[in-house]
Amino acid sequence: MVENNKNDWLKITQFILSLFAFLFTIITAAGFFAGGSIFSAFLDLTDQDIAFLLSIASVCLLLSLFHINSAIQALKKPSAPHSREIRASRSFLFASIALLIWGLFLLIDQFTILQRFFTPFLPYLTPLMIWIPIGWFIEFGRRKLGPLSARKRSAALSISSSYGMALILLLEMIVIALVVAGVLLYLSTQPQIRQWMDSFSIPQNLSQLDMPLIERYARTLLRNPLFLALIFLLIGLVLPFIEETLKPIVIWTLHKRSISPAEGFILGLYFGAAFALVESGGMVIQLGVETFASSILLRAATGLLHITCSGLVGYAYAGFMQPVRKKSTAIPLLIAIALHGTWNSVAVLSSLGSLSTEIGMNGLFSPIWDHVFSALLVLLWLTTFLILWKMNRKLQKNSSLPTHNENSDPGVHTFELE
Predict the structure, then answer these.
(1) Domain chopping of the chain, boundaries
(2) What is the C-alpha separation between 132 and 306, in angstroms, rounded?
(3) Average pLDDT for residues 154-180, to the nearest whole number?
(4) What is the pLDDT of residue 119?
(5) Which of 116, 146, 171, 236 has fewest C-beta within 10 Å?
(6) Exposed, middle or buried by CB within 10 Å (0-12, 13-18, 19+), for 11?
(7) Are 307 and 388 spatial neighbours (Cβ–Cβ below 8 Å)?
(8) What pTM value is reported for the model?
(9) How many angstroms separate the CA atoms of 71 and 67, rounded?
């Protein structure tokens, strides 16, 4: 009875949260669609502005579908485990076909003759083009691991893409603000640095900011070891720790059920996928349709990172819930944070290499380092993909081993529980 009451409260909570998220995203989508189409002439918008608004609307529309599906699944009677297993066996095939079409579209989009034809449709295709590789990574990571209930999958996508994302961004902004405040407080106590800060003056009219002034600030900051150390501390450790520990944090609502490591891993994949969708959507929209194909490819790479790392954390959280905890339970969590932090650090180094040329600091990085950083990112991507494959193989092997529990019902398995 206690378990059933808890299950009812989880369903009710999922329904309410998903319904509110649906209302917010569908209203937002309608507003941006109206601004990019009906009111574009009245607002005197450029084609780039219209594409920006329509892209946001399209992403919000996809998110609203996630939320309304989660609300429906919260009230829907669960399907039989056998039917879920049949659908799960086919999903990887469908995802692979979609990925093939996705790759062909990006290839065709590179031809200048056809770009004019595809460009008007790109804002509407943005969420689909972001989601297809994300969906394939999910299916690749969960293949042959057994079915997971639609209610859990939909809840992971809905909660992570809305409340989870908002919580992570809020905490990251608070941490960054505290670090900046601490740095400014420290600098104000250093006479030499304070004199240097007083020598700079920002014009009251920000439109008067010119490139030489920006370059002057950048040169001075990049030569400051303290500034660089703080950047790498935030990007390489603090922010990855916040993101990776919080993305699948909702898994802890199932702690009394002691979900299996495979379930924790699969749920983590969905939590990371939702986070990757929202983050990639924002990045692709900001870069615009001019660099659509390259932006989609780059965000697909980071999508794999988010999905794999969240899967590892979900696997670790499920391990913490087991009656008998192994000493190695926390290792997947540490690997996820280290992998994410290394990726961020190499990406920042690559950006600094490009920035040093733009601001006239060619001595900061030699041209050869651009190739080194690019090679490291490729190596990290391959390592991440290998980890995802290895985890899937490991869980397949573990699930095939016979298990016995004297206190459990032999006819009930964790994958069958809602």
Answers:
(1) 167-199+211-400
(2) 15
(3) 94
(4) 80
(5) 116
(6) middle
(7) yes
(8) 0.86
(9) 6
The predicted-structure confidence for 345-372, as pLDDT tens digits, reads as follows 998 887 776 655 554 555 556 667 778 8
Return the residue matching tokens 């999910």. 138
C-beta pairs of 35-38 under 8 Å, 24+ apart in sequence = 36/123
**Is-contact 318 259, C-beta < 8 A?**
yes
Q: Is 288 helix (H, G, I), strand (E, B) or coil?
A: coil
- Record the tokens describing residue 13, joined without a space: 């909570």
Q: Give the pLDDT confidence of 44-61 residue by residue, as tens digits.
A: 888 888 999 999 999 999
Categorise residue 79: left if φ over 0, alpha if ψ from -120 to 50, beta otherwise.
beta
State how far the Cα of 374 lies from the Cα of 287, in Å rounded to an integer: 20
H helical segments located in 359-404: 368-400
From residue 381, alpha-carbon distances to 136, 154, 281, 385, 394 in Å are 15, 27, 20, 6, 20
Contact 318, 264 (CB under 8 A): yes
Do residues 81 and 416 touch, judged by C-beta distance below 8 A? yes
> What is the pLDDT, as a whole number, of residue 131?
96
C-alpha 369/C-alpha 178 separation (Å) is: 33
Choose among 305, 225, 241: nearest CA to 272: 305
User: Exposure string (b/e) for 156-191, b if CB count within 10 Å is 16 or more?
Assistant: bbbbbbbebbebbeeebeeeeeeeeeeeeeebeeee
Q: Which two tokens stand for residue 390?
A: 């290895």
Residue in the block written with tokens 């507003």: 31
- Residue from 363, 288, 408 nearest 417 by CA: 408
Q: Give the residue carrying structure tokens 């409340």.
A: 163
DSSP annotation of 257 reads G
pLDDT value of residue 386: 97
Evaluate whether 68 touches 29 at the Cβ level (below 8 Å).
Answer: no
The full DSSP string for 217-251 is HHHHHHT-HHHHHHHHHIIIIIHHHHHHHHTTGGG
Farthest-apart Cα atoms in the chain, separation: 76
How do residues 295-313 score in pLDDT, each as one tens digit? 999 999 999 999 999 999 9
Cβ pair 265, 314 in contact under 8 A: yes
Q: Are 270 and 156 in contact (CB under 8 A)?
A: yes
